[in-house]
Design brief:
The structure is a homodimer of 332-residue chains. Chain A is an alpha/beta fold. Chain A is built from 13 helices and ten strands. In chain A, the strands form two sheets. Chain A has a six-stranded mixed β-sheet, with helices on both faces. Chain A has a four-stranded parallel β-sheet with strand order 5-4-3-6, sandwiched between helices. In chain A, α5 links the parallel β4 and β5. Chains A and B meet through β1, α11 and α13 of A and β1, α2, α11 and α13 of B.
Chain lengths: 332, 332
């Protein structure tokens, strides 16, 4: 399927600029000026659309294959819909219905797998063999993904106010490396911290050891957007030089951040989206008197999970959080 | 207490401009281009801050007295905090803790009453006698309130896109009359519909009968921001000429609208804030092919109530909704 390059709308015309919210009530509590940069109202509800659209627009292939039960799948489906391309999204057959519905609503083809029988990588490889005309897309480890996310960094570089630091969630590293790329290209030297669940702290360990360290298994953090085994190679080369540091947070701190965004900002964030605020809440002393921009990466969360977080129950084991969607644990 | 007029910051400098969100997923489902104008990120989480700040800035008194368990109380407390004034907010002693906490956090003095012993009007009158230097503020029936809310109408008149109609919730009428005032002053003829719960349809009946009709008792709609007995006199004189019509919605339609905003827009809205979308959902045929702007008036909602709405339970009797906060039923 040939693409008509001449008719492709540039990224900046199809995305929603990041939504800025001054979190005054949090600022007064913390002694830190809190500026939220929310991607929850981005097309498909997360920053992933930026990367997905840029990738789908740039590759010549008319078919894109990916594995994602989360935001990248939705973003890619919508991007392909806009671009007149096709996509196949591999999802576990136990994925939350709302996530499957969203991919289909955007015109994506869902390919269910039984994760006890076949891994997502294996199924993607099978599909790639069946469809030699297809492009196999990673949700983070691809220069096109980084470039798409760089559009957010460029926006943050252009803010009409002083920002002393930017906090962003990290899983595979696509967002943080994209923000760094966009900021630095626009001439901004604002320090960038990544925030990572302690349960999934491979990026923090990688930064300490100076090489990519992987988790033994997919981490069971409630922040299901960052359940990656490790950062990607393309991301790592940017992160290892560019990041000022990585803040690690507990599951309870993530839950508190989701609730604070609900109570004091009226912002619906998914646990992964609340990571940046969790990092600030747990390291507020280090940012006293500064203006900190917390990137809220997305808002797509299962209503039952969200209600449980609002109810304030902080689980002993993480299974309780995801009892209704425990198998939909594909990262990003 | 004298006010320093010279140091008063104008309304447009202290408010957040309305947040515009293209609700693409809703648009595609409804065949109506849905543009949300959200005040959920306004200072204190609802449009009420516009009115409260304008009123508090304009009256010469240094003390303002009001009865509100809801958004006007929070807005007024924050406005007075900014302006260096004092305020007393009369609230039932059974008000939700989060609401009491918010008024206090903004520096407001909370005056609890036992509603079985004394009415809010009576207590406000007592306080007015005790504090002859105070200004007694209505949350809607005051030209200063209408003027503050007119700032939203002016913003909507200035939108850089075509809008065929505006839908906004109605209770006392402060918001709808303000929007009409601002729009018409800015030269915009966009039709404005108000949306009202069927359980509290005094405004719709008033419009049909050509005179203010009051509810017999405070209506038990889940949209607790519009539990007024009737529209105000100042509001009525604007509404009766200016409104194109009033759409009535069921409690179930309000709940559906809250859920749709959560699922398809990532927007946390309070039931009153979701009224406008409920009106559109239930009258979508009449707006086919048009661009409709739904004003989401506020986002402050008790987490337990919100979780119950998300869970999809639609009550036979309304008590179930507000079992945890049934007495905090002061309107606006």
């Amino acid at each position: 399927m040939a693409t008509e390059s001449s008719s492709i709308r540039p990224l900046r015309e199809v995305i929603r600029p990041v939504t800025l919210i001054e979190a005054n009530r949090l600022s007064e509590r913390l002694g830190v000026e809190v500026l939220l940069a929310s991607e929850t109202f981005q097309v498909t509800g997360s920053f992933k659309f930026r990367a997905a659209y840029h990738l789908a627009a740039q590759v010549p292939q008319g078919l894109i294959i990916t594995a994602s039960s989360g935001n990248f799948g939705q973003g890619l489906a919508r991007a392909c819909q806009i671009l007149g391309k096709r996509c196949i999204v591999v999802m576990p057959d136990t994925s939350a219905a709302v996530k499957v519905e969203a991919v289909r609503e955007y015109g994506g083809r869902v390919e269910f797998i039984d994760v006890r029988v076949i891994s997502r990588q294996k199924r993607v490889q099978e599909l790639a063999v069946q469809h030699p005309d297809g492009y196999v897309a990673s949700a983070y480890d691809d220069p096109l993904v980084i470039e798409g996310n760089a559009s957010l960094g460029e926006e943050l570089a252009g803010l009409d106010r002083r920002v002393d630091g930017i906090l962003a969630p990290i899983g595979g590293g696509g967002l943080a490396s994209g923000i760094l790329t966009g900021l630095r290209r626009a001439g901004s030297a604002i320090p960038v911290w990544a925030v990572e669940p302690r349960l999934a702290n491979d990026a923090a360990r990688s930064l300490r050891e100076g090489r990519i360290v992987a988790n033994d298994h997919e981490p069971e953090t409630m922040a299901d957007g960052v359940r990656t085994l490790s950062v990607g190679r393309h991301n790592w080369s940017i992160l290892k030089e560019g990041l000022t540091g990585i803040l690690e947070v507990s599951e309870e701190q993530i839950a508190v951040a989701v609730r604070e965004l609900f109570h004091r900002v009226n912002l619906k964030a998914e646990p992964t989206g609340a990571l940046s605020l969790a990092g600030l809440l747990s390291h507020a002393e280090e940012f006293q008197g500064q203006t900190v921009c917390c990137v809220v990466s997305g808002g797509n969360v299962d209503p039952a999970v969200y209600a449980r977080i609002l109810a304030g129950a902080c689980p002993k084991t993480l299974e309780t959080w995801f009892s209704s969607s425990s198998s939909s644990s594909f990262s990003e």
